[in-house]
Amino acid sequence: MADELVHYSVANGVATITLDSPHNRNALSAQLRHELSAGLDRAREDSEVRVVVLDHTGPVFCAGMDLKEARGSGAQDQGVNEFPRILEQIWTSPKPVVAKLAGPARAGGIGMVAAADIAVAGTEATFAFTEVRIGVVPAIISITVLPRLNPRAAHELFLTGDTFDAERAVRIGLINSAVPADGLDAEVERYVRALAHGGPNALATTKELLSGGDAEGMRARFTEMTGLSAKMFAGEEAQEGITAFAQKRRPSWVPDV
Question: Which NCBIfam families match (predicted)?
Answer without folding.
Answer: PRK07827.1 (NF005879)
